[in-house]
Design a protein that fits this description.
Length: 609
């Protein structure tokens, strides 16, 4: 086997917000990727609006830098567990990984997930302790925790002998000494070139390139992002397109690109070890293989973990449909969901009993919420159902997904958070007090018990708590639980809300709408303080008489209504409720809008029980 000593392919993996994208910024700056006077934003690879708003990486992206004549291809992966499919795809393109760990927080649930995937792929690991300048940094303890994590994941002796770099990505320096602070990140580059193996290939082997991601441009259409494993690919070449279903078709490569910093550069040919983008395959999907036309040898298809959560997405059926968006029909919604499946291997779309509604399966609430938010911004009007866990029958037992929950909270909230998790059947696995006034707890809890937990957790900890969770596995059903103790205030008629009606209703609970807002029968306008639902008339006006005007003697003040984010709204809804999502509005509503029909269904359910 020959090696390409002029190339290194690495992935940067870590828990969310441990500094992956910031480290990539430093690597780009210090290798001359930007012009001296070029205005460059922070976290330059987080390019989409949603990524910048939420401050997280959602899509895996690749870039490339040159160091001492060696091209280093870097794959920046998401840090959130819900986007684990992006991590799994990114690891198939590389020969090693940089594992970033925060010098204060240490390994967290997603660190365990990404490290497990890297160890399964037998990738060499370089440990990067980032944010060593934090006043609460505990470098020695964090390194020991990482060693413990390797042992927990059954790493062998070769894997556990990893080098360590200490880094401050924001200031752009790295050092092999925990007490040192070099002027740049050259020590990291030197270690990377020395420790990460160069790509290997067989000169006599025909062309093989695995499609691991997709992109598109308005000029050449769909782009397939590939890692070339063997052989050479050239622009204008006719190759064998090996599809997932086993069929093989001849196709011509119309354009061929490699990555230089943040730009794609057109090239005539690319050899083994290169990460490339090719055009000319209009229906290519992730997992396909580009092979030699005379000797086509498909590579194994990419396998990712199965989804653990689902929710229904369908057309907007409310009385206010068609007022905001311009993409309303079932055909448009179905085409959009099918397009998402092509580019996201961890998403599944299944039909339901209704022709205008589909079940969408994914890794978690956030991934599904990002899909809904993206569709909303594209002009869709849709109806979204309550997130549900996906159960499976294993060895004759009904099993459900279980999550490992890591919580960092101030000591004074220990009791209330423990009580909250106990109500949701959380089981404490570990509790550590670092002596800084903060406590870290690890729980195992059923995934359905965590639906709606984040909002309640932030409220009880006054916004100071930090919560992370990652899929642990499927375990036998943990029993019934009820997550929302309150009912709903449901509008019993259509119209515009009035201040007079809302003044009376605000005593009943928390309102979700303000005055002058259009409502309809079956729309949820607030949260009832009691457990049952209550019908309400939010459009009632104060009548004018001969002695008083309709606005006289109003001394009460209307409490500002609660404005829900998309994630909060999805957490709140129950099985008989859904969420109407349009480009400009989000409305909670009952699945059955007619009050009489809801009453008959409730009576029939009680009778059958």
């Amino acid at each position: 086997m020959q090696t390409r000593d002029d190339i290194r392919n690495i992935a940067i993996i870590a828990h969310v917000d441990h500094g992956k994208t910031t480290l990539v910024d430093a690597m780009l700056r210090q290798t001359g990727a930007f012009a001296p006077r070029q205005d460059v934003v922070d976290r330059v690879l987080d390019s989409t609006d949603l990524e910048r708003e939420k401050g997280i990486t959602i899509l895996a992206k690749n870039t490339a830098v040159w160091y001492q004549g060696i091209k280093i291809n870097i794959v920046d992966t998401p840090g959130h567990a819900d986007f684990g499919g992006e991590v799994e795809r990114g690891l198939t393109m590389v020969d090693g990984a940089l594992l970033l760990v925060d010098a204060s927080e240490g390994p967290l649930p997603q660190t365990r997930f990404v490290l497990r995937k890297a160890l399964e792929a037998r990738l060499p690991i370089i440990l990067v302790i980032n944010k060593v300048d934090r006043p609460d940094a505990r470098i020695g303890d964090v390194v020991n925790e990482v060693y413990e994590l390797f042992l927990d994941l059954d790493a062998d002796n070769e894997q556990i002998e990893f080098p360590i770099v200490y880094c401050d990505a924001r200031r752009g320096w790295a050092s092999l000494d925990p007490a040192g602070s070099d002027a740049d990140i050259q020590p990291l580059f030197d270690l990377l070139v020395k420790y990460i193996p160069a790509p290997t290939y067989d000169e006599s082997h025909p062309l093989q390139a695995l499609v691991t991601n997709l992109d598109a441009t308005p000029y050449v259409g769909r782009l397939a992002l590939c890692r070339v494993w063997h052989g050479t690919i050239t622009r204008g070449q006719t190759i064998a397109w090996c599809r997932e279903d086993g069929s093989i078709e001849p196709m011509k490569i119309t354009e061929l690109y490699t990555t230089e910093a943040l730009d794609r550069v057109a090239v005539e040919e690319a050899g083994p070890g290169e990460i490339i983008a090719v055009a000319g395959l209009p229906d290519v999907t992730i997992g396909d293989t580009l092979a030699d036309l005379q000797d086509a040898r498909p590579l194994p298809v990419i396998r990712v973990d199965e989804p653990s959560m689902s929710m229904t997405i369908g057309t907007n059926t409310s009385p206010l449909a068609g007022r905001d968006g311009h993409k309303l029909t079932a055909r448009l919604v179905k085409n959009r969901l099918d397009a998402e499946v092509v580019g996201n291997v961890s998403i599944r779309v299944r039909p339901t009993e209704r022709p205008d509604t589909w079940e969408v399966q994914g890794r978690g609430e956030l991934q599904l919420a990002i899909l809904v938010e993206t569709m909303r911004r594209e002009g869709f009007e849709i109806t979204v159902g309550k997130p549900q866990v996906i159960t499976r029958v294993i060895d004759g037992k009904l099993c459900e997904p279980v999550e490992r929950v890591a919580i960092d909270i101030p000591e004074e909230y220990l009791g209330v958070v423990t009580q909250l998790l106990a109500m949701r059947k959380g089981r404490m696995e570990q509790m550590v007090n670092h002596g800084t006034g903060w406590v870290r707890m690890e729980h195992l809890a059923p995934a359905r018990g965590l639906i709606g937990f984040h909002t309640e957790f932030q409220t009880e900890t006054r916004g100071t708590g930090i919560l992370h969770h990652v899929f642990e596995g499927n375990q036998p059903w943990w029993g019934e639980l009820r997550t929302r103790p309150t009912g709903a205030l449901v509008s019993d008629r259509s119209g515009l809300t009035s201040v007079y009606a809302l003044l009376n209703l605000q005593e009943r609970g928390t309102l979700y709408v303000g005055p002058g807002v259009g409502v309809y029968e079956g729309m949820i306008i607030g949260e009832n303080a009691r457990a049952e639902d209550m019908g309400a008339n939010p459009t009632k006006e104060k009548k004018q008489t001969n002695t008083r005007s309709s606005t006289a003697e109003e001394t009460e003040k209307l409490i500002p209504h609660r404005q829900l984010s998309l994630e909060q709204a999805l957490e709140l809804i129950r099985e008989d409720e859904c969420l109407e999502v349009t480009p400009h509005n989000m409305r909670l509503r009952k699945s059955l809008l007619d009050g009489n029909q809801r009453a008959r269904r409730k009576k029939a359910t009680a009778t059958s029980a």
